[in-house]
Amino acid sequence: MTRLQTQGAVIGYGGPPIVRGVDVAIPDGRITAIVGPNGCGKSTLLRALVRLLNPSEGTVTLDGEDIHRVPTREVARRIGLLPQAPLAPAGITVKELVARGRTPHQKVLRPWTAADETAVMSALHSTALTDIQDSVVDELSGGQRQRAWIAMTLAQDTPLMLLDEPTTFLDIAHQYEVLDLLHRLNERQGRTIVMVVHDLHQAARYAHHLIAMHEGTVAAAGAPAEVLTAELVRDVFSLEARVLADPVTGTPVIVPAAPPGGIHTQPSR
Q1: In the list 58, 78, 138, 184, which could disulfide-bond 8, CB 3.0-4.6 Å?
Q2: What is the domain range of residue 182?
Q3: pLDDT band at 106 (very low <50, low <70, confident <90, very high)
Q4: Does residue 131 sit in helix, strand or coil?
Q5: Strands (E), the chain
Q6: What is the Cα–Cα distance from 30 to 32, expressed in whole angstroms?
Q7: What is the pLDDT of residues 186-211, one digit of tens each?
């Protein structure tokens, strides 16, 4: 089943299309990772899924309806978006930032309610930010800032969460911290999560469903073990590689076939 999908979507920014004739179905209650080389249309597709871009051809449907016919506030109650490298207003605290996630649920002249407060505190708790809720966002570490943005998306209380490269600019420990958090949110709360990811190992480790894009089209889609083959890595990423099993999770790991520097050792004589 899927609440969010595209049919024959052609997407661009006014010039030549970036994404061409794409059919994508996002599995409900699962984690989907969109992967592919730079410039292949990953973020463009994500923006269309959340209605920031309107396909010039084809459709994006949400709950069976053309998403561009759904009122903006209603879309924001169903889909939360975390863009790449978002910027917080100067001086804003963690709790104030998270509270902005409640905006789609606000009505004119309606005061802040107990339900709003509960949603914010729940989001802070889920992201382990309760103890620093009064800290200024600009003073946090990269991992803490990213968790604050995720908490804001959680407070929006949507069944679908879309994230554009949520681990960008984070060191390796904080990358896995954020991905572990998203895994828990999916596992414990049943959130449908879609994320653009560059690291194929991380995508395979955390996602149930992969969408591999190449030159604006979908090269393959399905379970990581089905999608990440040596042939696909060669064709999509121009990399000769072996695909092995992660010793911890059993998910695919990409190992370049050539040694560092691409220098192949010669047999001794």
Answers
A1: 58
A2: 4-88+158-262
A3: confident
A4: helix
A5: 4-11, 19-26, 31-35, 57-62, 65-66, 79-82, 160-164, 192-196, 209-214, 217-222, 241-245, 252-256
A6: 6
A7: 999 999 999 999 999 999 999 999 99
CATH of the domain at 214: 3.40.50.300
Answer yes or no: pTM beyond 0.85.
yes
Long-range contacts of 176-179 (CB under 8 A, 24+ apart): 176/202, 177/143, 177/147, 178/143, 178/146, 178/147, 178/150, 179/205, 179/206
> What's the N-to-C CA distance of the chain in angstroms?
61
- 184 in any annotated domain: yes
Residue 216 near residue 19 (C-beta atoms within 8 A): yes
Inside any domain, residue 204: yes
Residue 239 lies inside a defined structural domain of this protein:
yes
14-35, pLDDT tens digit by residue?
A: 899 999 999 999 999 999 999 9
Q: What's the whole-number mean pLDDT along residues 162-186? A: 91
Burial of residue 62 (CB within 10 Å: 0-12, 13-18, 19+) is buried
- Beta strand residue intervals within 37-176, DSSP E: 57-62, 65-66, 79-82, 160-164
Q: What's the 3-state SS for 139-173?
A: HCCHHHHHHHHHHHHHHCCCCEEEEECCCCCCCHH
Q: Is residue 207 part of a domain?
A: yes
Give the chain's domain count: 1
